[in-house]
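Thread: quick sanity check before group meeting

JM: Hey all, I'm pulling together slides for Thursday and realized we never actually wrote out the predicted structure for the chain we discussed last week. Dropping the sequence here so it's in one place. If anyone has concerns about the input, flag it before I start.
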Amino acid sequence: MNANQGCGGIEVLDAGLLTLVQDLGRPGLAAMGVGRSGAADQPAFTLANRLVGNAESAAALELTLGGVQLRFHRGAWVALTGAPAPLHLGTPSIGAPLGPRTAAAHAPLYVPAGTTLRIGRPERGLRSYLAVRGGIDLPPVLGSRASDLLSGIGPEPLVRGACLPIGRETVGDPIVDLAPVAELPAEPVLRVLLGPRADWFTHHAAAALCSGPYQVTPASNRIGVRLAGPRLDRARPGELPPEGMVGGALQVPPNGQPVLFLADHPVTGGYPVIAVVLEQDLPQAAQVRPGQRIRFQCTERTSR
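JM (edit): ok, ran it. Output follows.
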């Protein structure tokens, strides 16, 4: 991903707020102290790869609030999913006026060699995924090309001047003109299962959690969504010894404000977990912005 004058793949002209290389992560390494990481919104990530004929696990880009500009030194099919952002194809000079051609998200788009692709800011949602036919061909680390912000494992965040090689492994051809995708909700409702440490909290805490709403704070990232809302009071003092953590865990520090763990969460933690968000609802959690409100709905079992 080093900057060089002979880039034969994708040159980064503007890396935006935070753009990462991601795949489906590193499952099964928690005993070594390595979290799974990978795309925060996995359904959006895998859809982007399918739209360009890649395997679902092929490495792609995760964009935070868009604002990315890329120069393609080799023609390639791409697809943008997740938070829908405007796509513009234009001249290869950074800062030059772009041509009139625009394209929609959730659809395959061919970018000719020498063309600049600019991804604007999405009107709703936080993370967009840009898949390139053939995948981003960087060396894997512990079997994955995912960027883990907590551990520092995997590729570093993109910077201006970086060059991304394009791979050649595909599983088929782009066959869909446009993928129908539901609009992201303005105020997501995330279903939770109480436990495993709900007994560490007062009887009123669960009702408070599922009454809400909670607001996403600016201190949120891929590690966890920090929330501000009804305080979750404990019934007992002290802290737990470290124990395993999963994505979707709602850990509650002493201030009583829950933290919802996402893709780069730690593998152990010492604060009690009052509830866990259902896996099916985690993609919505990955798309919430600072200042946005969310609610939790207590449930006793997973509905499929």
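AS: nice. The CA atoms of residues 71 and 116 lie 4 Å apart. The chain has a mean pLDDT of 93.
JM: adding both to the slides.
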